[in-house]
Design a protein that fits this description.
Helix content: 40-55%
Shape: globular
Largest sheet: 3 strands, antiparallel
Strand order of the largest sheet: 2-1-3
Length: about 80
């Protein structure tokens, strides 16, 4: 199953979404986003734990065009 992290779940107002095949891929994308968008030069362990806990499991295709073709406009209902 694919994994999804919505930054807005942790930082209200942020629209960034990281998706990946596993938690490690999503965590890497999230860490890069935290550095570039939120100015975090390091990710403290307590923040990393919160981020990991916010990652959701999603059983649908995550490519927007593919999901819409396969599932229609309600493709992202689970996430």
């Amino acid at each position: 199953m694919a994994k999804v992290l919505k930054c807005g779940d942790l930082m209200p107002g942020c629209n960034f979404v990281a998706e990946g095949k596993d938690v490690a891929e999503v965590m890497a994308k999230g860490a890069e986003h935290a550095k570039t968008a939120h100015g975090m030069t390091t990710i403290p362990p307590e923040i990393a734990k919160k981020v990991q806990a916010a990652i959701k499991h999603c059983g649908i295709p995550l490519s927007p065009s593919h999901a819409l073709l396969v599932l229609g406009p309600r493709a992202f209902a689970c996430c």
